[in-house]
Design brief:
single chain; mainly beta; disordered C terminus; 523 residues; 2 helices; 14-stranded parallel β-barrel; 13-stranded mixed β-sheet
Length: 523
């Protein structure tokens, strides 16, 4: 394990993962136990993007060890035992088990009111295998990493493990634990097994350093935040279900330059929360995997939001994707109103160092507030973006303080008409803007048809809409397109294919002509 880590280059990590991809595979065999013989345990996590290992604490070699070196710890109330011959790094005091040295420790059994404490050296890597463990604590956290270079929590194949903390903590000091799984050191969670975390006091899983979620089936239910890293949070693989009263998954270092970033490159994440779904102070990147934000106030939030792959779905009571916060220096560009510059409210909008960049993958938004919102600029160069935006005129499906540049991909943004934002003058891909004479009800197919009568796009609304912005490579600037509502569609929502048989013609729009007042028949 490296005791020195290079400073992060977010751009380098994002580029390398985008080009190389990320895949994981793990196999494991266990010690033969009390017979005195053992087999070598080879647990490997292959990560093809080398920058993950260069710029974080994570190293796939950390998931390879010799089963003969394991220290077995059997947990039970009032009778926890270390059954291995080499146990100098373990101390048992009542229902508190303290691990003080580097090594691999296999835990099994339960403590109804106890604690696992890791208090190792600053250069030590401590690997803890959870093999059917249930831990509870009535006064604080049941699992605390006080010190180490890195703590690895490995979930044994076929095992189910549970951590439950107290509803109130007796220790309220600075850097005191506030989560059911709490680490002051770099933390890695891996392995094919399952982990259930019940954060009854505050947070579920917390690392006050870096956090890498390499694999596993992890369910978190927390009063406040679900999963929280500080310097960075990386999701490589695995399945994560987060229910939380606060934020879902986040990285929140606000003081160290280049820190506070979050990356999803694989796996499946489902979030149901009372505040922000996935959040980073600095940069939030989705390169692969599946992100489903089933409930949130704001879905994705960071100073810079980069989506280049994967499948992201956001449901939010406020903004769906929001580039804001961070340590930005704002300037007033005096952006033109309406679609000319893609300015959110036009005229006096301040444009800060905030960005949303979509270059691949799919992004689907269902928001009550703004759909895709940037307090700076936004670019769409690839992928598919579908926005089911607000019904009230105080918000828009697209809200960009600077310029919205569209050079590729497919965009369908529907919602109210009061703050309609459209692609700016720097866009190289054309599109059409539709402002309907009367609102279009939820579930209605909207068809864009070219001059030859071919259906270029069919979009099915999920809520009542008054406007639609559509851009794709199938739209040619300056050409006329006829808009229909009704007919049929091959899907119940979003972009699909369909037929205008039985549909009602709404009028004609010209590609590339963006004005808030223009709609079908208004020329």
């Amino acid at each position: 394990m490296r005791s020195f880590r290079t400073s992060l280059s977010v751009a380098a990590v994002a580029l390398a993962i985008s080009l190389a991809g990320c895949s994981t595979a793990a196999t494991s065999s266990t010690s033969t136990g009390t017979t005195g013989t053992s087999t070598t345990t080879t647990t490997q996590q292959a990560v093809t993007a080398a920058t993950i290992e260069e710029d974080t604490h994570y190293d796939s070699d950390d998931l390879t060890w010799d089963a003969a070196s394991e220290v077995a710890i059997s947990l039970s109330d009032g009778g926890s035992k270390v059954t291995s011959s080499s146990s100098t790094g373990v101390a048992v005091d009542g229902n508190t088990v303290t691990i003080s040295a580097a090594g691999t420790y296999r835990l099994s059994g339960s403590l109804s009111d106890g604690q696992i404490v890791v208090a190792a050296g600053d250069s030590d890597t401590v690997r803890i295998i959870l093999d059917g463990v249930e831990l509870g604590n009535s006064t604080g956290s049941p699992f605390v990493v006080q010190s180490a270079d890195e703590a690895i929590v490995y979930l044994e194949d076929g095992s189910t493990n549970t951590l439950t903390d107290a509803t109130a903590y007796s220790d309220q000091g600075d850097d005191a634990p506030n989560a059911a799984l709490y680490s002051m050191a770099d933390l890695t969670i891996a392995g094919p097994g399952s982990l259930n975390v019940n954060g009854k006091y505050n947070d579920g899983i917390v690392s006050k350093d870096g956090l890498v979620l390499a694999s596993g089936k992890v369910t978190v239910d927390a009063v406040d935040d679900g999963i929280r890293g500080k310097d960075y949070t990386v999701l490589l693989d695995g399945a994560y279900q987060v229910t939380a009263g606060g934020d879902g998954v986040k990285a929140d270092n606000e003081t160290d330059e280049g820190r506070g970033w979050l990356l999803v490159s694989g796996g499946a994440l489902t979030v149901n929360v009372g505040d922000d779904g996935v959040k980073a102070f600095n940069t939030l990147s989705v390169k692969g995997g599946t992100v489903t934000i089933a409930k949130s106030e704001e879905g994705l939030e960071a100073q810079h939001i980069l989506i280049s792959g994967g499948d992201t779905s956001v449901t939010s009571n406020d903004d769906g994707v929001n580039a804001s916060g961070g340590s930005s220096t704002s300037t007033d560009t005096g952006a033109a109103p309406g679609g000319g510059m893609g300015g959110g409210m036009g005229g006096g909008e301040t444009v800060g160092d905030y960005t949303v960049e979509v270059s691949g993958g799919t992004l689907t938004i269902n928001s009550q507030g703004d759909g895709l919102d940037s307090n700076g600029n936004a670019t769409i160069s690839g992928g598919t973006v579908v926005v089911n935006g607000p019904t009230n005129d105080g918000n828009g499906a697209l809200d960009v303080n600077g310029e919205l540049t569209v050079s590729g991909g497919t965009v369908a943004a529907a919602g109210s008409a009061g703050m309609a934002v459209t692609p700016g003058t720097s866009s190289t891909q054309s599109g059409v803007q539709v402002a309907f004479n009367s609102s279009v009800g939820a579930g209605t197919p909207v068809h864009v048809v070219d001059s030859s009568g071919a259906v270029v796009a069919t979009f099915v609304t999920t809520k009542t809409i008054a406007s639609l912005v559509f851009s794709s490579s199938a739209i040619t600037a300056g050409q006329s397109y006829t808009v229909y509502t009704g007919g049929s569609a091959d899907a119940k929502a979003g972009l699909t294919t369909g037929s205008i048989d039985g549909a009602e013609e709404q009028g004609t729009v010209t590609a590339g002509q963006y004005t808030q007042a223009q709609g079908p028949g208004r020329r």
